[in-house]
Amino acid sequence: MTDLERKLADALRDEADKVTPNLDAAWAEQVRRQHRPRRRRGAVWIAPLAAVLVVLTSVSIVTQVNTVQPPPAPAARPGQDLVLAKPVISPPSLDMGDSMALVDFAGQTDAWTSHAVVATGEGEARMFCVEALLKGVTGGGPNYGTESPSCVPLEGYPVKAGYVGKNGGPLPEGKAVFLTDRTVRELRLYDAAGDLSQAKALGALGPGLLFLADVKPGSPPVRFEVNPEVQAHPASR
Description:
Shape: rod-shaped
Distance between the termini: 151 Å
Helix content: 25-40%
Number of helices: 3
Oligomer: single chain
Structural class: alpha+beta
Largest sheet: 5 strands, antiparallel
Order of helices and strands: HHEEEEEEEEEEEEEH
Radius of gyration: 48 Å
Number of strands: 13
């Protein structure tokens, strides 16, 4: 090859490099271009999706708060209010009548027995009394403490009268006695906390039926229920 031919071949190769594409560089550029719009498109749809998720989460939380069931309302207070007259201690001109023994209890030196009594007071008013006598004594004789007998008038229906025991009283603490209408067969008592005490029928006394109950000391009965049969009867005296 002559010098002229060699120079011509070199010139042609130089021109060929200028017009022939660099495939490696072209591929790298294509890859770069493909990745760049993907990132942009991702940024475009990821941000709205995040906002939608925040809104849906907020709606879900609000829905849960609004649909949470409220705490159950307290159960209705059972029965009727139990209102007992304040006892009168040792009323004057008291004519004691029928009586029934309730419970025995110990004093400082002697044993005593609580009795329920239907008595007649001034003006022929009938009264329900509780007195504590020496055990074995059926009538008269010394009474326990200074509050025996304690009496309340017969009134109300179906519970005519009642007395809740106390320390130093004619009925020991933790006991309660009630005189009810004779149609009563079951007497349930509730204290302020709704705790139940079941009264035990002891038998007829005067114009009514006598019940004795164990009650929580310091928490006297405030409401009562009787058997449904009573509700259909007119008040009897």
